[in-house]
Amino acid sequence: MKLYGIDEDDISVAIGKPDFTGEEGAKTTAVKKFAGRFSGYPLKVVYEESGRGVFVIRRIP
Fold this sequence. Notes:
This protein is mostly beta strands. The chain has one domain. It contains 1 helix and 4 strands. It has one helix at residues 8-16; strands at residues 20-24, 27-32, 43-50, 53-60. It has a 4-stranded antiparallel β-sheet. The chain is globular, with a radius of gyration of 11 Å. The N and C termini lie close together (10 Å). The mean pLDDT is 88.
């Protein structure tokens, strides 16, 4: 997302080492704070895991 400067590495870090996770059905939400990025807001990534990998549904700073 160019608007917020979110790149694939940010999403991978949020999913791999989240500060908080939650599940709702098959969807998982990972929340990660990045110091000095995204105007102080945490990055929230909603995704599903399947046999073919991880499908990112939404990412929000």
